[in-house]
Amino acid sequence: xxxxxxxxxxxxxxxxxxxxxxxxxxxxxxxxxxxxxxxxxxxxxxxxxxxxxxxxxxxxxxxxxxxxxxxxxxxxxxxxxxxxxxxxxxxxxxxxxxxxxxxxxxxxxxxxxxxxxxxxxxxxxxxxxxxxxxxxxxxxxxxxxxxxxxxxxxxxxxxxxxxxxxxxxxxxxxxxxxxxxxxxxxxxxxxxxxxxxxxxxxxxxxxxxxx
Amino acid sequence: xxxxxxxxxxxxxxxxxxxxxxxxxxxxxxxxxxxxxxxxxxxxxxxxxxxxxxxxxxxxxxxxxxxxxxxxxxxxxxxxxxxxxxxxxxxxxxxxxxxxxxxxxxxxxxxxxxxxxxxxxxxxxxxxxxxxxxxxxxxxxxxxxxxxxxxxxxxxxxxxxxxxxxxxxxxxxxxxxxxxxxxxxxxxxxxxxxxxxxxxxxxxxxxxxxx
DNA sequence: GTCTATATCCGGATAGAC
DNA sequence: GTCTATCCGGATATAGAC
Lengths: 211, 211
What we know:
The structure is a homodimer.
Chain A: H1 14-32, H2 39-46, H3 50-56, H4 60-81, H5 87-103, H6 110-116, H7 123-150, H8 159-180, H9 182-196
The structure holds a DNA duplex.
């Protein structure tokens, strides 16, 4: 009955199962939320018994902390991989993360899912959620500011505020994709980018400034 | 032990309890989500036994349908009350709905909460959620388009697309207010409005067109 | 590391008295 | 309309064998 491609074996290393638990829990968190997935779901997915999970994560809260920390580590790695690109390309790549989420069985942003469960979460998990959200917002603000100075983005006020708008809209977009399909979300992200585009040069007066 | 201000009495009318159930369920949906609140929570709040709730709503799904229908009725009424106002004032009033949500114990948008639970909901509840979201989007699109033609809003492309951005951002904003407090959300809504503001007249050339 | 077995609690739902 | 009593399933978690 073990549906897993890598059934548990007596010689399995703890770190293997632990990593697979985190990966599966990440997917379940994005599709069903933290409260709505269970050790039973995880056990079924991995082909082990649910009691075995407690060896790796004594409580579900511990698992929640590890799952959110893993999301943060993934994002840090993603940031590292895109360090060289220009702001516009980076922002495109960032929004494509959410496009991929939505297309992958309607996964939502982990931060949005945790926010929904927020009042039923222990402080340890809440803290990790804040750290993850913070990492995204800081990156967004830096990218927006860099893009504005490079002339590829235009928006009013502080980059930090604009970063919050983009982040919230992206979260809302993947949520709405669950209702309406991922085409809806593509439209929203495109509109978000269109709003960031700088206006065309003041007027088509034929002045050319030579340098 | 009845904490309710209107304890159940033998002579209570069904419509009273039914209305109180819907109202309490609306609040619980916005704070904890549909899956996370229980008949027991409702019963405690109203000062009755949980079995009694089944008289009014045979199943929790039936309650969910009624709760979302009630949200839609409230919104329709809100729309009616604001018919006379100009687009800018209407949009301000609309965003203030979410500000009030966030300040009221961190309530989220019901659509966002239902979206999180979406894959675990029966089709009857999903349908109501779509109807509610649709009502908001249609109103937003109409208000945006009217405001653009009146010159108080500026945005690229179709109003319908911009409506989706505003709606998603508002949903994300109230969710993020649960993490960071409602001041954060005020900032986001302000930024949203600032982005909608039309640019200042082409340049301060001292041309006055007389009419 | 993973198992079986079990403890404990809470969820929605039903039957039938009042 | 609301009650008590009960059923059943599923949740997290623990104990102890292998």
